[in-house]
Specification:
Elements: E1 40-41, E2 51-56, E3 63-71, E4 76-81, E5 86-99, E6 109-112, E7 116-119, E8 125-141, E9 146-147
Antiparallel strand pairs: 1-2, 2-3, 3-8, 4-8, 4-9, 5-6, 5-7, 5-8
Length: 151
Protein backbone atom coordinates (compact mmCIF):
# COMPACT_ATOMS: atom_id res chain seq x y z
CA UNK A 1 0.00 0.00 0.00
CA UNK A 2 1.31 3.43 -0.86
CA UNK A 3 1.97 5.91 1.91
CA UNK A 4 0.61 9.46 1.43
CA UNK A 5 2.90 11.43 -0.88
CA UNK A 6 3.52 15.17 -0.95
CA UNK A 7 0.49 17.31 -1.65
CA UNK A 8 0.20 18.79 -5.12
CA UNK A 9 -1.92 21.46 -6.72
CA UNK A 10 -4.40 20.10 -9.20
CA UNK A 11 -8.11 20.30 -10.02
CA UNK A 12 -9.24 22.78 -7.41
CA UNK A 13 -5.96 22.37 -5.49
CA UNK A 14 -6.52 18.65 -5.08
CA UNK A 15 -4.05 16.80 -2.87
CA UNK A 16 -4.40 13.72 -5.09
CA UNK A 17 -1.55 11.74 -3.65
CA UNK A 18 -3.21 11.47 -0.24
CA UNK A 19 -5.89 9.17 -1.60
CA UNK A 20 -3.98 6.56 -3.53
CA UNK A 21 -5.33 3.10 -4.18
CA UNK A 22 -2.81 0.23 -4.20
CA UNK A 23 -2.21 0.08 -7.99
CA UNK A 24 1.12 1.82 -8.55
CA UNK A 25 2.82 0.12 -11.46
CA UNK A 26 1.76 -1.61 -14.65
CA UNK A 27 4.08 -4.56 -14.07
CA UNK A 28 1.18 -6.83 -13.13
CA UNK A 29 -2.50 -6.86 -13.94
CA UNK A 30 -4.61 -5.30 -11.23
CA UNK A 31 -8.29 -4.91 -10.48
CA UNK A 32 -9.72 -2.41 -8.03
CA UNK A 33 -13.24 -3.18 -6.87
CA UNK A 34 -15.63 -0.28 -6.39
CA UNK A 35 -15.57 -0.82 -2.61
CA UNK A 36 -11.75 -0.56 -2.62
CA UNK A 37 -11.60 2.91 -4.16
CA UNK A 38 -10.40 5.31 -1.47
CA UNK A 39 -11.91 8.80 -1.81
CA UNK A 40 -10.88 11.84 0.15
CA UNK A 41 -11.70 15.53 0.00
CA UNK A 42 -10.51 17.17 -3.19
CA UNK A 43 -9.55 20.23 -1.17
CA UNK A 44 -9.53 19.71 2.62
CA UNK A 45 -9.96 23.46 3.14
CA UNK A 46 -13.13 23.35 1.00
CA UNK A 47 -14.86 19.97 1.43
CA UNK A 48 -17.67 21.13 -0.85
CA UNK A 49 -15.19 21.01 -3.76
CA UNK A 50 -15.74 17.28 -4.22
CA UNK A 51 -13.74 14.12 -3.69
CA UNK A 52 -10.84 12.43 -5.46
CA UNK A 53 -9.27 8.97 -5.52
CA UNK A 54 -6.04 8.24 -7.38
CA UNK A 55 -6.43 4.82 -9.00
CA UNK A 56 -3.00 4.54 -10.56
CA UNK A 57 0.22 6.54 -10.67
CA UNK A 58 1.16 9.65 -8.72
CA UNK A 59 0.03 13.08 -10.00
CA UNK A 60 2.88 14.79 -8.14
CA UNK A 61 5.54 12.87 -10.11
CA UNK A 62 6.41 12.55 -13.82
CA UNK A 63 4.37 9.88 -15.56
CA UNK A 64 0.78 8.99 -16.22
CA UNK A 65 -1.94 8.74 -13.59
CA UNK A 66 -5.66 8.01 -13.35
CA UNK A 67 -7.94 9.68 -10.80
CA UNK A 68 -11.64 9.28 -10.12
CA UNK A 69 -13.52 12.46 -9.21
CA UNK A 70 -16.86 12.83 -7.38
CA UNK A 71 -18.81 16.07 -7.25
CA UNK A 72 -22.10 17.01 -5.59
CA UNK A 73 -24.78 18.90 -7.49
CA UNK A 74 -24.27 22.64 -7.15
CA UNK A 75 -20.47 22.46 -7.06
CA UNK A 76 -18.65 25.08 -9.14
CA UNK A 77 -15.01 24.49 -10.08
CA UNK A 78 -13.73 27.99 -10.79
CA UNK A 79 -11.85 28.96 -13.95
CA UNK A 80 -8.43 27.35 -14.11
CA UNK A 81 -5.96 25.58 -16.40
CA UNK A 82 -3.36 22.84 -16.18
CA UNK A 83 -0.07 22.70 -18.07
CA UNK A 84 -0.67 19.07 -19.10
CA UNK A 85 -3.53 17.68 -21.20
CA UNK A 86 -6.54 16.05 -19.53
CA UNK A 87 -8.61 13.15 -20.81
CA UNK A 88 -11.89 12.85 -18.91
CA UNK A 89 -14.74 10.34 -19.11
CA UNK A 90 -17.98 11.16 -17.31
CA UNK A 91 -19.34 8.01 -15.63
CA UNK A 92 -22.49 9.50 -14.13
CA UNK A 93 -24.26 12.79 -13.53
CA UNK A 94 -24.47 16.02 -15.49
CA UNK A 95 -22.30 19.12 -15.69
CA UNK A 96 -21.72 22.22 -17.77
CA UNK A 97 -18.28 23.39 -18.91
CA UNK A 98 -17.03 26.55 -20.55
CA UNK A 99 -13.68 27.16 -22.15
CA UNK A 100 -11.62 30.35 -21.94
CA UNK A 101 -10.17 32.61 -19.29
CA UNK A 102 -13.51 34.38 -18.80
CA UNK A 103 -16.32 31.95 -18.06
CA UNK A 104 -19.68 32.51 -19.75
CA UNK A 105 -22.21 29.93 -18.57
CA UNK A 106 -24.51 30.80 -21.49
CA UNK A 107 -21.88 29.26 -23.82
CA UNK A 108 -21.34 26.11 -21.74
CA UNK A 109 -21.33 22.63 -23.26
CA UNK A 110 -23.21 19.82 -21.55
CA UNK A 111 -21.36 16.85 -20.12
CA UNK A 112 -23.46 13.80 -19.26
CA UNK A 113 -22.82 10.15 -18.45
CA UNK A 114 -20.80 8.63 -21.26
CA UNK A 115 -19.31 11.93 -22.42
CA UNK A 116 -15.60 12.15 -23.18
CA UNK A 117 -13.66 15.38 -22.86
CA UNK A 118 -10.17 16.26 -24.06
CA UNK A 119 -8.55 19.43 -22.73
CA UNK A 120 -5.15 20.43 -24.11
CA UNK A 121 -2.61 21.78 -21.66
CA UNK A 122 -3.11 25.49 -21.07
CA UNK A 123 -6.87 25.44 -21.83
CA UNK A 124 -8.80 27.47 -19.24
CA UNK A 125 -12.09 25.88 -18.20
CA UNK A 126 -14.90 26.29 -15.66
CA UNK A 127 -17.22 23.54 -14.45
CA UNK A 128 -20.75 23.66 -12.99
CA UNK A 129 -22.10 20.37 -11.57
CA UNK A 130 -25.84 20.08 -12.25
CA UNK A 131 -26.33 16.53 -10.94
CA UNK A 132 -24.12 14.47 -8.61
CA UNK A 133 -21.32 13.33 -10.91
CA UNK A 134 -18.45 10.86 -11.14
CA UNK A 135 -15.72 11.23 -13.75
CA UNK A 136 -12.37 9.63 -14.45
CA UNK A 137 -9.32 11.69 -15.34
CA UNK A 138 -6.22 10.48 -17.17
CA UNK A 139 -3.26 12.85 -17.36
CA UNK A 140 0.46 13.07 -16.73
CA UNK A 141 2.33 14.52 -13.80
CA UNK A 142 3.53 16.53 -12.30
CA UNK A 143 -0.01 17.89 -12.42
CA UNK A 144 -0.50 21.57 -11.69
CA UNK A 145 -3.18 24.21 -11.68
CA UNK A 146 -3.36 27.93 -12.36
CA UNK A 147 -6.50 29.92 -11.61
CA UNK A 148 -7.64 32.68 -13.95
CA UNK A 149 -7.19 36.23 -12.69
CA UNK A 150 -10.64 37.18 -13.96
CA UNK A 151 -13.72 35.23 -12.98
Amino acid sequence: MLKPAALIAGLAALPFAMFVTPVTAAEEAAVIGASEVIFGPADPAHPEAGEVAVLSGDPSKPGSFVARLRFKAGTVVRTHKHSKPEYVTVHSGKALMTFGEKSDKSKAVKLAAGSFLYLPGGQYHTLWIEEDAVAELFSVGPFDETFAETQ
